[in-house]
Design goal:
Blueprint lengths: L12 H7 L6 H8 L9 E4 L5 H8 L4 E4 L3 H10 L4 H5 E4 L13 E6 L8 H11 E14 L5 H13 L3 H5 L5 H8 L3 E13 L1 H9 L12 H15 L5 E12 L18
Helix pairs in contact: 1-10, 7-11
Keywords: Methyltransferase, Transferase
EC number: 2.1.1.163
InterPro entries: Diverse_substrate_MTase, Methyltransf_11, SAM-dependent_MTases_sf
């Protein structure tokens, strides 16, 4: 994984658990119908974080092994998903996208969600190919925050650019469609997009911002001015005490084929 990405969220776990969006159930349906993943197939969720993406496939009946290097996030996932340990089956391991610790040819489906942009892409592709069974598939997905379309969305983007520590550099790590096609190479099969959103009151919006790795923390000189600007933005754009924090959930699927990786920049913004 890239630089300090395995540690970036250690002190944001509580906000991440409480305020991060889920993913549409249609992502699992897409894996079944469009990718031919059988019910009950074993899933390795890479960079599983606090378990949000793993739960999507557990709820769809799949046993899941969550691979997560950050101990605090992995422990949060274990608490969150404890009821799935026996049915359909959940466990976690301390591993990375580049070294999962899983056995060769041991899983039917590799998934990765929001964490994908932190991976060392070439090494991760090689590792995914190693742990997948011969007919295994890869499904990658993440929530891309919309930056246009409403006064709130545009104001929130401007707020991040004004106050966030390394927002611009993090945003550039998200691959676009061409980069994902390059990453899959001849194994690329298809892409789809699902709408997603959170309706947030002010406390929810503040927590959502605090869960982002680039948001200034308490004690930073930018923290209080950022919250003051957030309050002003919320008051100006809320409807019935809520703002619509809109995303597109982007999904890419294929087989693990060798291919060059080309750096590129997404036109939308990350959920990091």
């Amino acid at each position: 994984m890239i630089d300090d990405s395995t540690r970036r969220f250690t002190d944001r776990v509580a906000d991440y658990v409480k305020y991060r969006p889920t993913y549409p159930r249609e992502v699992a349906t897409f894996a079944h119908v469009e990718c031919g993943i059988a019910p009950g197939a074993t899933v390795a969720d890479i960079g599983a974080g606090t378990g949000i993406s793993a739960k999507l496939f557990l709820d769809a009946g799949h046993p899941v092994v969550a691979v997560e290097p950050n101990a605090a996030m992995r422990e949060a996932a274990d608490r969150y998903l404890a009821n799935y340990a026996d049915n359909p089956g959940y466990r976690s391991v301390a591993g990375t996208a580049e070294n999962t610790t899983l056995d060769t040819a041991s899983v039917d489906l590799v998934t990765a969600a929001q964490a994908f942009h932190w991976f060392e892409k070439t090494d991760a592709r090689r590792e995914f190919a190693r742990i997948l069974k011969p007919r295994g598939k890869i499904v990658l997905f993440w929530n891309s925050r919309l930056v246009k379309g409403s006064a709130f969305l545009e104001g929130y983007e401007a707020l991040l650019r004004e106050f966030s520590t390394d927002y611009a550099s993090v945003a550039e790590t998200y691959p676009d469609d061409d980069a994902m096609a390059d990453w899959f190479g001849d194994g690329f099969e298809q892409k789809t997009v699902f709408p997603n959103a959170q309706l947030l009151d002010y406390d929810g919006l503040r927590g959502r911002l605090a869960s982002s790795s680039y948001a200034p923390k308490p004690g930073d000189a930018r923290h209080e001015p950022m919250l003051a600007a957030l309050r002003t933005l919320f008051d100006a754009t809320q409807r019935d005490g809520r703002v619509n924090f809109a995303y597109e959930t982007r999904v890419y699927a294929g087989k693990p084929m060798a291919a060059p990786v080309r750096a590129s920049q997404d036109a939308q913004r990350p959920n990091s």
